[in-house]
């Protein structure tokens, strides 16, 4: 089993400590998978500045395969962050840098490379919606993070993404139960049968073919919540795949229930580390 994050990379720049950390949903997925003992890769676009060099160096140290990444002339993505009582607050950035305007385009060689992976993860900040139809020819399961912004929940956007993915993640801490049910029904209607709604301390909800599973939360005193959602998602997805989930075999109830527990524990540990997964650099 191998997995890959396809899409965004950024440096999370902590203003209060003058320290930057590697990040981005797709990068975090690859690193958390590696921490869980699964060979992993990242495919995306880097700039050619000091931040790009830093992220690539740290991912290489961790053992993430970057062999199909591209490097472009321009500024790498970064997000400016302050920490308030252990909770990260985004206060600025450059909107993803060069990769927003020039996201990776999958060629024949990339698609051949992707055939070796069981699971591909991407998200709304990767700007790779146009590439998702190409992934449908692969055996790999495709997961997609829709985050929390309403612009990524319109019918127009869902139609661009949902027909080409197997698993949808939404951050739904501010949603009412009625709003969650409406969202899930809409996403189901666009063809996705596996939907995870993370809700912070309220605990996650997972819908599989219309059946609701409730996850729990392991409470810790957080050092930093950066990456908590990504780590939960990664651990949950990997558990489901390891216990038999494929495009033709739905995950079992037992795998789902145990996976939610495993993911809660892994996510709690993530909250005890600065940045999404450490590897900070003073600037």
Any key phrases for this structure?
UDP-N-acetylmuramoyl-L-alanine:D-glutamate ligase; 283 residues; globular; alpha/beta; kinase; Fructoselysine 6-kinase
What does this structure look like?
With 283 residues, the protein is α/β, with parallel strands linked by helices. It has a single domain (3-278), classed as UDP-N-acetylmuramoyl-L-alanine:D-glutamate ligase (3-Layer(aba) Sandwich). The chain has nine helices and 14 strands. Helix 1 (25-35) crosses helix 8 and helix 8 (228-242) packs antiparallel against helix 9 (253-270). It is globular, with a radius of gyration of 18 Å.
Write the layout of secondary structure elements.
Blueprint: E1 3-7, E2 10-14, E3 19-23, H1 25-35, E4 40-46, H2 50-62, E5 70-71, E6 78-84, E7 87-93, H3 98-101, H4 108-114, E8 119-123, H5 132-135, E9 141-145, H6 155-161, E10 167-171, H7 177-189, E11 194-198, E12 205-208, E13 211-214, H8 228-242, H9 253-270, E14 281-282
The CATH class name reads: Alpha Beta
Overall tally of domains:
1
Radius of gyration: 18 Å
Number of helices: 9
CATH level-two architecture: 3-Layer(aba) Sandwich
Number of strands: 14
Strand content: 15-25%
Main sheet characteristics: 9 strands, mixed
Overall pLDDT level: 96
Global structural class: alpha/beta
Low-confidence segments, given as residue ranges, are none
Query: Would you identify the CATH H-level superfamily?
Result: Ribokinase
Distance between the termini: 37 Å
Q: Write down the secondary-structure element order.
A: EEEHEHEEEHHEHEHEHEEEHHE
Helix percentage: 25-40%
Shape: globular
Q: Identify the strand order in the major beta sheet.
A: 5-4-1-8-9-10-11-12-13
CATH topology: UDP-N-acetylmuramoyl-L-alanine:D-glutamate ligase
